[in-house]
Amino acid sequence: MLDIQSHVSLKSYNTFGIDAKARYWVEIDTEEQLRTLFQVSEFLAAPKLILGGGSNLLFTHDFEGLVVKMSIQGIKVTREDAAHVYVKAGAGVNWHQLVLFCVQNGYAGMENLSLIPGTTGAAPMQNIGAYGVEIEQIFDHLEAVDILTGETRIFNHAECRFGYRESIFKHEAKGKYIISSVTFRLNKQPVFHTAYGAIRETLEAMGISEDQLTIKAISDAVIRIRRSKLPNPAEIGNAGSFFKNPEISKDDFARLKADYPTMPGYPTGDLTMKVPAGWLIEQCGWKGKHIGNAGVHAKQALVLVNLGGATGAEILNVAYKVQQSVEDKFGIKLNPEVNII
C-alpha cells in the first residue's frame, strides 16, 4: 500500500538541512510499489526527484512534483567464483553499512569508500569515489525500473558509461529509470590502495606497517581521515565535496606550476592533470570564510556549509563566488559535484 503525502518538508531528508518542501512524497520499499506508483497517470506525468540519502543535493526552492524516497533494503551474496564474491544490495541500503558488511566478511574493494554518506542506489549514478577508488572499479551490474513501462532492466558496466562523477543516469537515462538494486564484484584477495591522500601516514600513526595491512585497517584509516577533515551533517549542514576536482591539460598545469610551485596535481591520462579543487579554493582565501550563515568549511575548503538557517540560494551564492574567484586567479572553471535542484 502506497502512502502518498503532500506538502512534505525535506529538511530532514537532505544533509544541507534546507527546509524545502515536496508537493508530493512517497517512500518505496519494494519494486512492486514502484510499478504500482507509476500506474497512476497523475504521478507518471509529474516531475520526479529520486531521493536516496539526500547527501548530494542542494535545494534552492520547493520541489513542485513527486519526491520518491528509495528505501529498498537487503544485502546478500548472489554468487562467487575462485577470485570474486558478488554482493547485491537494495537501493535504499546505507552506503557505509554496506561497506562495513563487506569489510567484516573479508570482501575487498570497497574499503577506501568508507564513511561516504548516502545510499547504494545513488552510488553508481554519481560514480562515487574517494582515496584512489571509484565505484566503476568494483561495479558488476544494477537493476532499474523503467518509469514508463514498469519493467526491470539490467545495466551492465559498459551500459552505465561511467566517467569522473558521471554515468548514463545523469545524462541519456536521467528521469527514465529508478535504480532498485546494485551488484558489486569484490575480491577475495585484496589489492590495497594506499597511495592517495593521507592513508599511508594515517596507517603509520595507527601503528600499522605494510606487512600488517588489511582491508579493515584501510577502512579504519579512511574513517579517521574523513572524520578529522569533514563536518558531520548532523552538526553542520553540508553535502561533502561540493565541486569536482578539475582536469586541465599538462601544458596548462606546467604553466600554472611555474607561477604556483606548491600546486598539487595528479596525472589522469597522457595529456591531462587533475588539480585538487580544495587547494584552489583555499588559495583564493575562502577556507573558513562565510557570508551570513553560508560558507566554506574551516578544515576542508572543498566543503560548503550551512552554519544554521541558510537557504539553498545563499549557499549557491557562495558557490558562485568561489567559482568566480578560482577562475579569476587560475583560469580554471570549477564544476559542482552536488546536484542543484
Structure description:
The chain has 341 residues and is an alpha+beta fold. The chain has three domains: 5-70, 2-Layer Sandwich (Uridine Diphospho-n-acetylenolpyruvylglucosamine Reductase, domain 2); 75-187, 2-Layer Sandwich (Uridine Diphospho-n-acetylenolpyruvylglucosamine Reductase, domain 3), CATH 3.30.465.10; 237-340, Uridine Diphospho-n-acetylenolpyruvylglucosamine Reductase, domain 1. It is built from ten helices and 20 strands. It has helices spanning 31-37, 41-45, 95-104, 123-126, 157-160, 199-205, 215-229, 250-259, 277-283, 312-330, and strands at residues 5-9, 21-28, 48-51, 57-58, 63-70, 75-80, 84-90, 129-130, 133-134, 139-146, 152-156, 177-187, 237-241, 247-249, 266-267, 272-274, 290-291, 294-296, 303-306, 339-340. The protein has a five-stranded antiparallel sheet. The longest helix has 19 residues, at 312-330. The chain is globular, with a radius of gyration of 21 Å.
Sheet with the most strands: spatial strand order: 6-7-12-10-11
Total domains: 3
- Largest beta-sheet characterization: 5 strands, antiparallel
Mean pLDDT: 91
Tell me the β content: 25-35%
Descriptive keywords:
Uridine Diphospho-n-acetylenolpyruvylglucosamine Reductase, domain 1, Uridine Diphospho-n-acetylenolpyruvylglucosamine Reductase, domain 3, alpha+beta, UDP-N-acetylmuramate dehydrogenase activity, 20 strands, FAD, 341 residues, 4-stranded mixed β-sheet, Uridine Diphospho-n-acetylenolpyruvylglucosamine Reductase, domain 2, 3 domains, 10 helices, FAD-bd_PCMH-like_sf
